[in-house]
Amino acid sequence: MFNENQFTLDLWGEYKIPKKLIIYKDIIVDRKSKYTIVGWYIESENDAKELIKFLKKDKYFRDATHNSYAYRIKQENGSILEWKNDDGETWAGMCILREIQRENAIQLVLVVTRYFWGIKLQTDRFKNVIDACKMFFEKTKN
User: Fold this and answer.
1) Extents of the domains making up the chain
2) Crossing angle of the two packed helices 124-140 and 92-102, in degrees rounded to 10
3) How many other CB atoms are found less than 10 A from the CB of residue 69?
4) DSSP secondary structure, 1-26, as one string
């Protein structure tokens, strides 16, 4: 979302994810906390909600401490729909959304799952969420 007097230029084109479910499990381990990232091609808000429901059917994701996510969808009229959800990990959704925006990714939902094992990471948790997103894009670019 933009404030007054802000603008964006599409200099690099749009990143489009392959049309398949991509999971990188335990991509980051930091002081016993484990991070997994999931990316999925979506065409609507409903697709994003369906992914979350699908993931939570699996014990690994259902038992996780947090399943924070964000998505970005280019609609038929050309406008961009963005959404984020922290799932109790304050500001994690915004970190994910910012990385999606930086890559100019569309038709994508990213879910960062965290298993917390008792050691508070303070602000390092944001670095881990951001790094997980960056790793996802590095691994999925053609």
Assistant:
1) 33-140
2) 30
3) 26
4) ---TT------S--EE--SS-EEEEE
Tokens 């930086």 belong to 102
Please, where are the H alpha helices in the chain? 45-57, 59-62, 92-102, 124-140
* pLDDT tens digits for range 72-113: 999 999 999 999 999 988 899 999 999 999 999 999 999 999
Q: Give ∠ CA 86-87-89 in degrees, rounded to 5.
A: 60
Query: CA 87, 134, 119: angle at the middle one, nearest 5?
Result: 50
Provide the terminal-to-terminal Cα distance of the chain, rounded to the nearest Å.
28
The CATH architecture of the domain made up of 33-140 is 2-Layer Sandwich (3.30)
Q: What is the pTM of this model?
A: 0.84
Half-sphere exposure of 7 (CA within 13 A, CB side): 4
User: Taking Cα atoms as reference points, which of 27, 19, 32, 4 lies closest to residue 106?
Assistant: 19
